[in-house]
Design a protein that fits this description.
heterodimer, A: 306 residues, alpha/beta, Rossmann fold, Alpha-Beta Plaits, 2 domains, 4-stranded antiparallel sheet, 11 helices, 13 strands, elongated, B: 249 residues, mainly alpha
């Protein structure tokens, strides 16, 4: 794995007056992956992203995007990246097709705008004014604008904020589609579910600093190795038998339901082996795995929505 | 980025026309004022008869033209403020468009509507002012557009400092309309108190009035080299300051 990273960020710091927005931020984004910067509002996600896409100048640190310096080679870079900005708007009375037309006139090698409008499900909104679009339609238009130059790298900042769950899922599918076309996606989100379902790797950022980086599964494994197995069984000896498994920390019973807590990814296997060995009858069996939300809570000491 | 400039300018024209209130405000109102004043004061505004109060002895075409400029500038200030607040400027900046291309497009749109309004005004006011009698319309239009460009650079400066779009219109009006008062249009600059004279000489509108009035009454451009020079210098200075302090978000 010595591929040249698409984005290389090293020790970036950015302050606004006395407020330190981001500090000592370092990470790499590899080609073809969906990389997510996750953290609560105000953690420094947008600042970091805008330093990377060239909209802001960091106070110090090194940033390289597709081998270019985002400030010095700003316009050369713009040709090769696509950007969707947080909470951006367009002219109220610009038509969908006009926005796409304008954008495609700005790049040297645009893709077919009409096809893009169709692909993003905006075909029947082609002549609609921007102000009449729903939140999901606006975001799809912004994705279209970010893809108009067939970019190698796409920046998506808080793409699904304010969308209903259905629109959100539709957008996720679109983002996966972008990756399938071989492009790299760098996104920010404060939705842990979004990060978990969409991102190949995530960096957790809090108070302007990166706390940890890894795949969602790695992060869960590293920081929240606890596993819980819940079994419903009439077997009165069950609790004793599970306690005998070395990886089990505790077993508690509530009526017929047993809650078995322990550590390590093997826990579930051992519980199943134990069930088979003693031919226990079970009515229900389920596992509870920690999520990124739990990881976030553990690493930062607070919930992401605080 | 010439291609992006024409495309953006053309789009902004279409978008502007789609908002009826904006068009009525910038094009309709100056024309209306011109026609109403023309009716009230009759076809012979000058020479001033002794019993007409001094304040109405202004050159109404000049006043109306400057109202066009003022509403043009206010409209620019408002649009820039709205675009900034809505993140539209930010979004446009995250493209290969150069920042000055974005702003130039708006200036071109505003100049076009200045010219359209002037034409509408002169057509509507034909009955009250014999404009075809020796008024160099082409020169006058040029002079008005030139003055407007100069004052638009002041508009950019105002647009740079307004905190939100809600303040843009009132703040712009607060700066622009008093300028009109001391511009020499109603009262000659020379008869103002010394303090106000100094203020008047620092403001672009004063030179615009002198230039427009001169051209309207048949002066050649050569008689107004000083006005043109000062307006050009003010344009350069204000643009330079705006470029420094302009906020995109």
């Amino acid at each position: 794995m010595t591929r040249q990273p698409v984005i290389h960020v090293a020790s970036v710091r950015k302050t606004y007056g006395r407020t330190v927005a981001v500090d000592e931020v370092s990470f790499d984004v590899q080609p073809g992956e969906i990389f997510g910067l996750i953290g609560p509002n105000g953690a420094g996600k947008t600042t970091t992203m805008e330093c990377v896409d060239g909209l802001r100048t960091p106070d110090r640190g090194l940033i390289s995007v597709l081998g270019l310096d985002p400030r010095r080679h700003r316009y050369a870079l713009q040709e090769r990246i696509g950007v969707q900005l947080q909470a951006a708007q367009l002219q109220k009375r610009i038509k969908v097709c006009e926005a796409v037309g304008l954008w495609s006139s700005l790049y040297r090698q645009p893709v077919d705008g009409d096809r893009l409008i169709e692909q993003l499900g905006l075909g029947d909104k082609r002549n609609a004014w921007f102000m009449t679009l729903s939140g999901g339609q606006k975001q799809r238009l912004f994705i279209a604008l970010a893809l108009i130059n067939d970019p190698e790298l796409v920046f998506l900042d808080e793409l699904t904020t304010g969308l209903d769950p259905q629109a959100r899922r539709a957008i996720w599918d679109l983002v996966r589609g972008i990756r399938q076309r071989g492009k790299t996606v760098f996104l920010t989100t404060h939705l842990m579910e979004e990060a978990e379902r969409l991102c190949d790797r995530v960096a957790i950022i809090d108070h302007g600093r990166i706390v940890d980086i890894g795949t969602p599964a790695e992060l869960v494994q590293r920081h929240c190795p606890e596993r819980t197995v819940i079994i419903v069984s009439e077997d009165s000896t069950a609790a004793e038998r599970f306690r005998a498994i070395p990886q089990v920390r505790s077993v508690s019973r509530e009526g017929l339901q047993l809650t078995i807590r322990g550590r390590g990814s093997d826990l579930v296997t051992y519980v199943i082996q134990c069930l088979a060995e003693h031919r226990m009858q079970v009515i229900d069996f389920r596992t509870e795995l920690p999520t990124l939300e739990d990881v976030f809570l553990k690493l930062t000491g607070h919930m992401i929505r605080d | 980025m010439l291609r992006g400039l024409w495309k953006l300018t053309w789009l902004e024209i279409k978008i502007f026309v789609r908002e009826p209130m904006g068009v009525i405000g910038t094009v309709g109102i100056p024309v209306l004022i011109f026609v109403v004043l023309g009716r009230v004061l009759g076809s012979r505004v000058r020479p001033v008869s002794p019993d007409v109060p001094r304040v109405v002895s202004v050159d109404i075409p000049i006043l109306a033209s400057l109202l066009i400029t003022a509403s043009t500038v206010l409209s620019l200030v408002t649009i820039i403020a709205i675009y900034r607040e809505g993140g539209i400027l930010r979004r446009l900046r995250a493209t290969p468009l150069r920042p000055y291309t974005i702003l130039t497009a708006h200036v071109l749109v505003k100049l076009l509507f200045t010219a359209v309004t002037l034409a509408a005004m002169l057509l509507a006011g034909r009955r009250y002012y014999s404009v075809d009698a020796g008024v160099p319309l082409v020169s006058f239009t040029m002079a008005l557009l030139f003055s407007t460009v100069s004052i638009l650079s002041l508009g950019f400066l105002i647009a740079s400092i307004v905190p939100t779009a809600r303040f843009a219109q009132p703040l712009g009006a607060l700066i622009l309309y008093p300028m009109l008062g001391v511009s020499g249009l109603f009262v000659p600059v020379a008869s103002l108190p010394p303090m106000l004279q100094a203020v008047a000489r620092a403001l672009p509108l004063t030179y615009a009035v002198s230039l427009l009035r001169g051209i309207w009454h048949g002066d050649g451009w050569s008689a107004h080299v000083a006005d043109v020079t000062v307006l050009s210098l003010m344009f350069l200075a204000l643009t330079a300051v705006s470029a420094k302090v302009f906020r995109w978000e």
